[in-house]
Amino acid sequence: MKAAKLPGRYSDGGGLYLNVSARGARSWLFMWTPAGGKRREMGLGGYPAVTLARARAKASDCREIAAGGGDPIVERDKTPEKTFGEAADEFISSIESEWRNKKHRWQWQQTLRDRCAAIRGKLVSQVTTEDVLKVLKPMWTAQPETAARLRGRIERVLNFAKVKGWRSGENPAAWRDNLRNILPKQSKLARGHYAAMPYPDLPAFMTDLRAVDGPAARALEVTILTASRSGEAIGMRWDELDLDAALWTVPASRMKAGEEHLVPLTARVVVILRKLAETAVGPHVFPSPAAKHKPLSNMAMMMLMRRMKHGDLTVHGFRSTFRDWCGDQTTFPREVAEAALAHKVGNAVEQAYRRSSALEKRRKLMDAWSRYCSATGQKKGTLF
User: Fold this and answer.
1) Phi, psi of 31 (to 5 degrees)
2) How far is Cα 237 from Cα 156, in angstroms, rounded to an integer?
3) How many other C-beta atoms lie within 10 A of the C-beta of residue 120?
4) What secondary structure, in 3-state letters, does 241-294 show?
5) Contact predicate 280/292, CB 8 Å
């Protein structure tokens, strides 16, 4: 190779050439002529970074591809196949802009990492229906909603992999015409999107909760009594509260639906908040113990539930508990209960009509809910 100093191309045989530029730079080329086509060339890297031996090995691979009717350039430019774990991580990064808070990313990462540990190291093209079943079966009846969500996430990852060219064929995590023939339908499983506490058990739980000290316990109590989403409650700020009017205004930026939500506060909630205000530091009602300028971690209430031996339930499930109680134990209209949960009911005209009177109706509903949560020996079937 040292003799090749003049500009030009020097053949090594088998389509491999050393190209010398006018400035003396040397690089490897592979040249071939497809059947019925024009002569083509592809760079194999510069010399001496790519040695003669390495260049010959690359040229050999190219000849094999060309002999089989393939295109060495197309093969070179293909994205290397990923494992399921790598594909899942890349997919999460590609869709994280869809999520309003970091909790969603954590949930996707946690389920696709911990729940799918058995298949994360497997090439995504080799994931089969049997692999998906091994992940889902142990939790399908014990944790139906978590399992259903995980199935959907696995399906999306595998669809992503197919678009990327890492796999082909049918999606082994698809429900229709696939898993639905093996696993029971979701309608036959436990009701509700999140594992929830039956409302008859709630008063006793609230008694235990009020005996626990600490910000996580108070945050969970407020979350339950306001029927709020956990993120809305732990992100509560002092400037959102009017304790004299017993009103909490959650700004649109912190609401799932992107609209401002007014929450009437019960006497018990006001007592809790006034007590917390005595030692308030920073803008958050429930500040992080580690950083007062940040809110309590999303995990704080979940960990508290585990310590209270209710790790099989979810904080969000208390919204289902509230809704079931409303429907079974009260005469409040459905739209009032749905408004308390910040759910939209009816068309825009109906929503505008209800807005003026719904707040006071909801205040009566939340007062009744607070009384129920504080009750001991509550008789089933009592209407408020």
Assistant:
1) -125, 135
2) 36
3) 17
4) EECCCCEEEECHHHCCCCCCEEEECCHHHHHHHHHHHCCCCCCECCECCCCCCC
5) no
pTM flag (> 0.90): no
Helix or strand (DSSP H, E) at 78? none
Q: What does the pLDDT read at residue 240?
A: 95
Specify whether the CB–CB gap between 125 and 167 falls below 8 A: yes
Pairing of strands 261-264, 247-250: antiparallel
* Helix or strand run (H / E) with residue 234: helix 230-234
Do 66 and 98 contact (CB within 8 A), yes or no?
no
DSSP annotation string for 13-65: ETTEEEEE-TT--EEEEEEE--TTS--EEEEEEETTTS-HHHHHHHHHHHHHH
Q: What is the pLDDT of residue 157?
A: 95
Instruction: Give the number of other CB atoms < 10 A from CB of residue 366.
Output: 21
Do residues 262 and 248 touch, judged by C-beta distance below 8 A? yes
Residues 6+ apart with CB under 8 A from 57: none
The series of mean pLDDT values per 10 residues for the chain, 384 residues long, is: 74 92 88 88 87 91 88 79 92 81 77 91 92 92 82 93 84 89 64 71 93 94 94 93 94 84 94 94 89 84 91 87 90 89 64 59 94 66 34
